[in-house]
Amino acid sequence: MNTSAYAAAGVDIEAGDRAVELMKASVARSRRPEVLGGLGGFAGFFDASALKGYRHPVLATSTDGVGTKVAIAQAMDKHDTIGFDLIGMLVDDLVVCGAEPLFVTDYIATGKVVPERVAAIVGGIADACVAAGCSLVGGETAEHPGLLGPDEYDIAGATTGVVEKNAILGAHRIEVGDAVIGMKASGLHSNGYSLVRHVLLNQAGWALDRHVDELGRTLGEELLEPTKVYALDILDLIAKAQVHGMSHITGGGLANNVARVIPDGMTAVLERSSWTPPAVFQLVQQVGKVSQPDIDATLNMGVGMVAILPQDQVPAALAALQQREVHSWVLGEVVAEEGAGAARLV
């Protein structure tokens, strides 16, 4: 099929080429020395000889998307921050295992390729890769006319990292008496937006440009607040304190995600009184008349990351996080309790 016929079907190859040219500088910013070649090839290359310094390297991989938060970016026509949500969802799933993120690939599907919009999305992804210490080595932008509207898009990605086998964090290290440290979220991050949109936009009928006194800004600005990328903070924490396990608080809420790293015969008891959820969480609950169990099981409630470590490591851990300007506090403790590994808020 020739180009003009393809264009008549709704696919603009020239626009795709322009988008690639616009994003090249952004991608270059994220380049680690191990990356080989440039943008535009059929595959991205990462020099695996860099792993020879490991005694027993184990590769870790994760894939994810942003979910319905992209609808907020589209409605506000602001596309340069959504990449932080994608990278946060990807690399921070790796780092909780103790892995250093190495590289990322992304995928953007859109109804119509608008080069400037695609470049803004990829620019945000690249900036977030810089913040995470990894490289954006390639990706794909696909035009899907008839499947997505001209202004609609969705993004997803995958990442790979590496960790020494004997340094993998997880349930096998957790012990009774370990402290649980919470780390402040930047906001809603990238989970529960179907609930948030249903409550605030559909039920309450609020506009994104509505100024909300409790938030100190417009609703749209609050909902588009980028996900905090913790990767370098966590790698620094692991280097300075003896960490047993970690949990990235994403879909399913705080207790459900912490429970994923708690071994059988133990429960992580999390103290509600140790922190106050930011205003946006209280707003969703009050406006939508959402029950406490429902909101706990959906949103992060202001806790973006959790570390579990021996009590005597707490001062070093809090100091390391404070040095990197990550607000953290003692959230709870691991106790002995019969049954499957669990976590509960009290």
TrEMBL record:
Gene3D superfamilies, A to Z: PurM-like C-terminal domain (3.90.650.10), PurM-like, N-terminal domain (3.30.1330.10)
Pathway: Purine metabolism; IMP biosynthesis via de novo pathway; 5-amino-1-(5-phospho-D-ribosyl)imidazole from N(2)-formyl-N(1)-(5-phospho-D-ribosyl)glycinamide: step 2/2
Any Gene Ontology CC annotation: cytosol
Domain PurM-like C-terminal: 175-339
Organism: Tessaracoccus defluvii
Alphabetical keyword list: ATP-binding, Cytoplasm, Ligase, Nucleotide-binding, Purine biosynthesis
Enzyme class: ligase
Entry protein name: Phosphoribosylformylglycinamidine cyclo-ligase
Main location class: cytoplasm
InterPro entries: PurM-like_C_dom (IPR010918), PurM-like_C_sf (IPR036676), PurM-like_N (IPR016188), PurM-like_N_sf (IPR036921), PurM_cligase (IPR004733)
EC number: 6.3.3.1
Record-linked HAMAP family: AIRS (MF_00741)
Start and end residues of each PurM-like N-terminal domain: 58-163
Family: Belongs to the AIR synthase family.
Compartment(s): Cytoplasm
GO molecular function, one term: ATP binding
Catalytic activity, as annotated: 2-formamido-N(1)-(5-O-phospho-beta-D-ribosyl)acetamidine + ATP = 5-amino-1-(5-phospho-beta-D-ribosyl)imidazole + ADP + phosphate + H(+)
Transmembrane segments: none
Single GO biological process annotation from the record: 'de novo' IMP biosynthetic process
